[in-house]
Amino acid sequence: MFNNIVNVIEFQQNRNYLDLFQIVLFSTFHKIKTTEYYICTEKIRRIMYNCKSLKILCQLIVVILFLSFTNNASAAVAVPDVVATDAAGVAKAKEGMALFKANCTACHAIDKKVVGPALTGVWDRWESEDKLVAWVQNSGKLIASGDPYANKIFNEYNKSVMQSFPTLNKEQIQNILLYIKNPGVAAPVAATPAPTAGTEANTADSSNWLLWALFGFLAVLAILLWNITSKLDKVVREKAGEVVEDKTIVEKVFSKKTYKTLLFIGSILLVFNVFNGAIDLGRSQGYAPEQPIKFSHALHVGQNQIECQYCHTSVEKSKHASIPGLQICMNCHKYVKQGPKYGTEEIAKIYASQGWDPDQSKFVKAPKNFEWIKIHNLPDHVYFNHSQHVKVGGIKCQTCHGKVEEYEVMKQFAPLSMGWCINCHRQTEVKFADNKYYSVFQKYQDELKKGTKAKVTVADIGGTECQKCHY
Predict the structure, then answer these.
(1) Of 234, 213, 216, nearest to 224 (Cα)?
(2) In terms of pTM, does the model score above 0.85?
(3) Which of 251, 207, 211 lies closest to 230, judged by CA?
């Protein structure tokens, strides 16, 4: 091919560059040998100029190739495609998905504009990867440096500075970009659809009906047995020579024996209710108070896919998950001024508390204290650590709090009783694989590797010991 080009250049040195390309293209496609150039080049030229349609076609090819080379050259931020068989690529995409949900979903979506722009193709909009990384880590600094594209975005979005993420390193940002370009390979397998509210209600009604039917059957059986025993008692007494008076049904019902029986049953029920009430004291399963601001987890978590950790910031670092302050709400609601269900009514409460004027787009008053109504409340003598369960144990929020992403009003899902916790500890398998926190349990590590132990539960590592939760 190189010799072909040299020969054409020597022969066509007085021709224009389009002629040169056309001859190279034609000779390459038809596999003309180098030695044949001196014979057929002039013939090729005449064919090219006599066939106008072919000439136009070649010109179009030149333009298309030029644009293609230009686009390839301008793609400064290289983000590869990932296939499902690429284990390393899928792992990075999954890490990127976790980082994206924890840091980006409050303001961005992959394929649509939310507070910020859609992120699909963001790698093509920046001239270099270093600038894109700098923008994510500290957008204000890049704007102050005078970068043209950074200032273009800044002005386009009403001079709102994007939240900085200095803790994200270059590799993590690359993984986020990898997930944005390949969301399909990182997405989890769809779970089996949960029963609908109607189905759950029907199941509950069915269970209640069965209980009442069983109660009725036992009541009828008790009356029949009582009647039979009464007749047998009469026969035995008469056979012994006693004179037994026939009593009416009313006399039988209101006899001393009946009173003693009812007193005995009542005492049992009273003791049972006292103990049951004492056990349930302070528990509030199903408690769903109306909050000062109507916050829908179904909208924010379910529809908008905002990660729990974005609002409950300390859930992976502290024993407390933290109740979010309204300043977190303002990260998005400086720009999102109307909701799909309540319009501006509930968002206006956020503005009033934070002293924000939506018309001027600035704070005009000092913020006020705001209190959410607490739902989950453990006794003072019980120790529970969120970070231990979420970060170390890898327990999903839904395990204890139910399908939060479907709640229009937040409620207490689980009883949070001692028995409930212990049963969970007995059944839950500890995730030993690639978890350095559990490296001290060498005996269990060895047994798992040898296959002599199928799994290790929380109870196996002391999860049912009193001092774990009471000290």
Answers:
(1) 216
(2) no
(3) 251
